[in-house]
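Q: What would this chain look like folded?
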Amino acid sequence: MTEEWLREIEQAAKAATPGNWTSDGRVVDWLCGDAPAVAVRWHEDGGGSPVCMVQPEGSCQCGSDPIAGSPRPIEDARHIATADPPTVLALVTEIRRLRQVYETVTK
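A: My prediction, written as structure tokens:
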């Protein structure tokens, strides 16, 4: 994992909707027209607003961009929610810290 890749991941996390994301795996049918979908929600506002929808068939909107259907919508939604911006930023910080330790020890 190069520093350039870390910067790319870090920038994407900083640009995303802030706050903690969750997905309880419940299928909702009112957010994506007639097709059922699993919501990934953010909770900084306390209201659980959807940031992304994952659905098993067809396509749906993730923000303003259409996304393809998923063969595992519940698992995919939980994975997306687990990789929320605070988690990704913490991982980037830890990788950089461990690299500094390694460089110090190996000199």
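The chain has a mean pLDDT of 75.
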